[in-house]
Amino acid sequence: MPPDEKTPDRDPADREVCLCFHVPLGKLAKFTRLEKPRVCSQLSECFGAGTGCGWCIPFLEKIFEQVREDPETLPTFDISEEEYRVRRREYHKRINAEKMRDHREGEEPK
Ligand code: FES
Questions:
Q1: Distance between alpha carbon 11 and the CA centroid of its chain, in Å?
Q2: pTM (two decimals)
Q3: Spatial CB neighbours of 2, under 8 Å, sequence gap ≥ 6
Q4: Which of 22, 44, 53 maximizes ligand 1 atoms within 8 Å of its Cβ, making it the mutation to test the pocket?
Q5: Mutation probe of ligand 1 site: the residue of 45, 47, 55, 85 with most atoms within 8 A of C-beta
Q6: What's the pLDDT at 106?
Q7: Which atom in ligand 1 lies closest to the alpha carbon of residue 49?
Q8: Which residues have a Cβ under 8 Å from the Cβ of 63 and sit 6 or more positions away?
Q9: pLDDT in tens, 93-106
Q10: Taking a C-beta distance cutoff of 8 angstroms, is the pair 28, 12 a contact?
């Protein structure tokens, strides 16, 4: 059973966006509404969001834009929490594979 079905009453604001630093959607939306960052990268000042693996950065950009357009509405996601986690795992596999390839290519004699 997907986690979304296990926790149907969970507050959407509690959904973790930055999984590296466990930063929830509600905190990011509140930070954006109150601190009024000029650029999305300033969301990193909200508990370090986006400064780990980088997976969540496109989602931080969406949150940043959505809150600036409509500060009173909690941003929404078009993928489930489970799918979000699955895609992040795939992202990590791809990044690690690229690092391994780069490392091997760096070791080859010229
Ligand atoms: S999930 Fe946000 S930096 Fe890794």
A1: 17
A2: 0.85
A3: 80, 81, 82
A4: 53
A5: 55
A6: 84
A7: 2
A8: 17, 25, 28, 29, 32, 43, 75
A9: 999 999 999 989 88
A10: no
